[in-house]
Amino acid sequence: MRIDHARLFALIKKETLQIIRDPSSIAIAIGLPVVLLFIFGYGVSLDAKHVPVGVVADNPGAETADFVSGLRQSEYFEPIGFGSMAEAQEALMKGDVNSVIWMKSDFGRKIRGNGASIGVFVNGVDANTARLIEGYLTGVWGQWLKRRAVMSFGTDAGQGAVLESRIWFNPDVRSRNYLVPGLIAVIMTLTGALLTAMVVAREWERGTMEALMSTPVTIGEILAGKVIPYFVLGMGGMGLSVVMAVYLFNVPFHGSYIVLFIASSLYLLAALGMGLLISTFARSQFVAGQVAIIATYLPAFILSGFIFDIRSMPLPIRILTHVIPARYFVSILQTVFSAGDVYPVILSNTMALIVIASFFMGIVAIKSKKRLR
Amino acid sequence: MFGRVLALVIKEFLALLRDKQGRFVLIGPPVIQLIVFGYAATFDLKDVPYVVYDEDRSLASRELLARFSGSKAFEKVADVLDEGSIGPMIDNEKALLAIHIERNFERDLIQGRHAAVQVIIDGRNSNTAMLSLNYVNEIVERFNEDLSRRYGIRGAPARLDIRAWFNPNLESRWFIVPGIVGLLTLVVTLIVTALSIAREREAGTFDQLLVTPLSPFEILLGKIIPGMIIGLLEASFIIIVTVYWFGIPLRGSILALYLGLALFILSAIGVGLMISSFAVTQQQGLLGAFLFLVPAVTLSGFATPIANMPVIVQRLTLINPFRYFLVVAREVFLEGAGAGLLVNQYWPMAVIGAVSLSTAAWMFRRRMY
Amino acid sequence: MPSSRPDRASDEGPSCAVSARRLNKTFIAGGRSIKAVDDLSVDIKPRAITGLVGPDGAGKTTFMRMILGLLAPDGGEITVFGRDVADDSGEVQANAGYMPQRFGLYEDLSVLENMELYGDLKGLSRDMRKARYEGLFKMSGLAPFTLRLAGRLSGGMKQKLGLICTLLSSPRLLVLDEPTVGVDPLSRRELWAIVDHMVEREEMTVILSTAYLDEAERCSDVILMHEGRLIRQAGPKDFTDMVAGQSFMVTAPSLGKRALRQRLSGVKGVIDSTIQADGVRLVVQKGMDPAASVPGVCPQASVSPVPARFEDAFVFLVRQKETPVSADSMTHDAGFDVPAASNAANGVIEVDIPAAGCQPEGTPALDDLHDVIVVKGLERWFGGFCAVKKVSFSVKKGEIFGLLGANGAGKSTTFRMLCGLLPPSGGHLEVAAEDLRNAPARARAKIGYMAQKFSLYVNLTVAQNLEFFAGAYNLKGIQKKERIDWALREFELEPYKDTTSNDLPLGYKQRLALAAALMHGPQILFLDEPTSGVDPIARREFWTRINVLAESGVTVLVTTHFMEEAEYCDRLVIMAQGEVLAMGVPDELKARYLPDVPHVTMEDVFISILEGRGA
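Output (structure tokens, whole complex):
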């Protein structure tokens, strides 16, 4: 494709002026990313803390009080006492507490002997939170037993196998540390695919495309005239997101910026390719916007591993995620932020991005003709 | 008046359904999202890849490991022979966790000494990490219990007897799918209403309406009724799929669900029309709907609990109608709630609906030119 | 890129600038295939203006796009200055300037930025720019607005900017697609002045399509197309010579112009009748002598022959081409069928005013002597800008009242305030004794409204649209059915009943819009530029209906910048910059402003008033 620099520069200048003067471009490229970053940086968290739990002790005594104080010391729970199981169940139904711990009347007696059991009722509606509560509770319970064992026998031995766990990369297990990096993929999809598809459709709608096409401008120049400004805008959005992630939300960054830059560029090219591809058939902003949201934004949100781990998905959907460029980028982002430059992960995902980006760009180059319909 | 509003309603339906794009908006995204959300939006772990470094190679270690390989949640990808190989496996995402059983595990176990099982977990996705740690914990606990029973070793003096209510197998799908009823209803109602006035403005038909004897109230009613009917139909379709395809139990009163649904749709229409009365072009309408939807969905408790949010954000969610409907949907579906228990969810939606509709009506009168 | 234009002297060779041979192009729309260009072979002369005329859907735009290589023909070939467009579209585009119907100006770029963009895209060298810009700005009068955003320009200025953008690189071939649509007469003259200048000074070849047939007379060669086919290519004079002796002027001072036209149009052998100046202009069949047959319908009329105009030839040729309507008439994109042409266009039409029962109850009949529309000191401000300044006029029952003005004169704003779509900032207005903005629904039932662009529901069928408007106007049961049947019958929409209105030919869309506005038998009809972009044949038809309505007592308020349509008005106001410059009966205005010129047209009056004011 022949590219004339003066013409290309003129197109880029025009596009830049339009971006600056059109409030909706700014809203998509800057406004929406900032809103999303704040929501995910501050608002959303999967880490349950201070969960209200109802505690019912049929026969209160030293043991029950000791266990409740054990609960209170953990940052995960906020124990609330109830006089009877009926009251506690009602609170559980109403959603005032998330779970109820029931120590029956023989708890104190049996705990000194053997075979005491504590009844725990968890509201299972939110399965994820319920699982986490289960886990935390098991942990607190184990700690308490160990402490008792040390107190009575002077040792914690004989408890069977003891689990010693280490969580790498994110020892505080903060969900923000993986949500915010993954969000960068979503944000770049907005600029790369949604905004680009819509601005090209706008040129068709307003008749400016027909006027452009009657000039000596080549199709390569028109495409490059779109890709370059939105590439810069998208990379700007990425830079902004990284700065906010690291300095505002204190997400650790262990990798190197050069790797991040290369991977982001490749992903952005893929997103631009998708946006331009959409605009080759969707020539109204309405259709282009709808298609871009369904074909690029939603998959980047749901099928990329950004919130929902791909490993949890059923096999057919897992296979489907392989055609979604965001999944490779999210994987790179989470690795570069939390783990550092782990080259095997980065290289394989980068390869995939190169393949997808060149695929989309190739189709766009073939499909775009300097012709009207 | 009835005749005029009826004419408007019929026109609105025809305009929507005769249009390829309109039909697509009503059918395409909901079906795609239902499938994607229903299957992909899950936190339940399956086939977590793990590596084993078993230094002990004893009966006890093999028995413990057998429990992992027998679990659906885990899938072994490799046995390694030295500690150094574990790191790269986790770094490269070949394995999410590593189980390291030290030499003398069996001996320590029998002698009642400190018998450690080390677990290393990839924390890049902290939620997955926490969940898999919990699974590991459960397996180890079960192992200990069986061990104590079999060998008479003094085991734990007491055990936790955990039972989950409403969702005994703790399936995320039971949590997510009733939420989709609200999510899709919200998206469809909002898109339909947020664009409707802007579309008429762009096409010039809005002026044409204003010069007829139709009053602004009638025009508004002519937008509300179709939105309500479409929302209810859409929701009913999703409810049927939820119950019969995804097999989610519908335990409570259908009446309570539909009461909540009607109030929810009303508030969604209010927000949609409010956006519509501000927007001059369809593009602005689409953008406005999008700018409302993204926070409304993320800050609703749909995927992440409101209780985990900072207090200030929690307060902010009070103006989000979706948050209330999510409670209604989940309580009716899973907890078998009736209308009585849900009053506190109904009235905020009614208030939001009333406020947004009056704002829309007011804006609508002011922006009549 | 250095200018790759070959030396002009070297290719004086080809005697034609554009040559098309057996050109074909078919579109598929809504499952039907439409032959947009059908076996077209023409040659276009260099260094001259060639006009492209024809009814809607004649294939003019498609042909132009193919000349520029923006559309590939299905069959046939085109060469431009000897180069095959199919092989060398880049070279053709480098030497051509094209202004599409809606010229793609970037509205959020300023005038200068738009110029710079097209200058860069066309490879205009930096040092040439300054002089070129200056010349073009001077010619177009845009010099004071170089920093204004293109979106803030008036319609006429936008067209001028579009034109000078295409002229930037002095193209050898200039292709203009309806450059003067929606442009007021003054801007139209300026646009033409620029084009004439280019042909004269820079020896450009110009191809221009237009719906204003007086413009065809300014071309040196005219191509008349119909349904994709070439009907005739000749100089405008040849066209008019063809119908020489067939044009007459009939005057009958004692009879109203409208009534006269209605009677004349029924006379056998009359092909066309239009109201002009103080009488009715007739085009008759060859050999017919109206002096002999006219007294039969109107004894007091005087008949005198007048010179033929291009428009006469156009109507004559297009009418000839029209074939009887067949079951598959929908395959033609230009939807003129014979009943339409022979009835409506010739004025034989019954537009009955609905029975009294159709009126909302309790409405007093409007007094004949009363002013139906009263406007006093009407004002409208947009921020600090005054769009309408103290406008006053009144309209009597049964009058056709025109609101004339250049683009941005404030006529649309006035119009919208009258309809209650826009609140006035000051002054008093009354329509049927009420202010429509705050009036009860009952008052709005008295008016009908037809917007400038087609504004019915495009994805509803014809019948569904009528059904809806009948419902919105409170019609019920049998009455509703009767009115819908009436509309389908009167506007000859029956065959299109189940067609989605978006797929209707333009002329039919306009009929449908009028039918919807008349559903409830309004007493006052508001028409905002009702015929903008509509071809001359459909325009005639439309005015025939309006005439009949007015004769039956409906008051009509119309905005227009088609000055020939002003002739249909009983009274009119001419507005500029928000003020009323002149008001009165057309003949009076002619006598007042241009008393010494014979056969003066409204356009001459309009321009003299505006120029007299230095606007």
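The beta strands of chain A are 51-57, 77-82, 99-103, 116-123, 161-168.
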